[in-house]
Amino acid sequence: MQLEYRIMSIKHQLGVSCIGWPIVDYRDISEVSKHFLAVKSIVNCLEIPFIPYDWLSRLQVLVEQNEINVYSMHLPKNINGESAAVQNYLFQVIRRAVNMLHIKHLVVHPWDGEAEKGQIVHLMDLPITHIHLRGYSPDLKYARLSKSGDIVDNLIRIVQQKGYAGKFTLEYPYDNYGLAEEGDEILF
Asked: Residue 57: is its pLDDT beyond 80?
């Protein structure tokens, strides 16, 4: 079984025009919809935050009418701290969102808690996973985690132990990480 991943620096974008989130209250579905429609003429796709279950059908209409193209969705950063019931609910919503909105990438932040309990383990059955290695420390809300290569090594160890054989992209925030160059594909 082979594990393949691609290293990508945040200085480089994926080969598609995406837009993130400005100051938009994404708790408000009408404001989010306005933002989607306002930017659709200047970008090919959207990167969105995690969205509530009851929004899915409303956004699905925009997708099906070719009003928007959702490229990726960021998952909640602190999912590891939630109860098992809440985590299971979130994972169900995530799977529904991937199917209903035709999301191409899930962006997970597995290093905000214990790595062994990270989101990646629960999402390995989904086809494409994009992993931000610039997770957030619970103690320092917006601080970057360590520059150490241990982050990548730990992730590789976990996915190998779980038998994951798919592809994913690791996005890391530092130029000086020596494991691989931008765009390298590494097989295990």
From this structure: yes
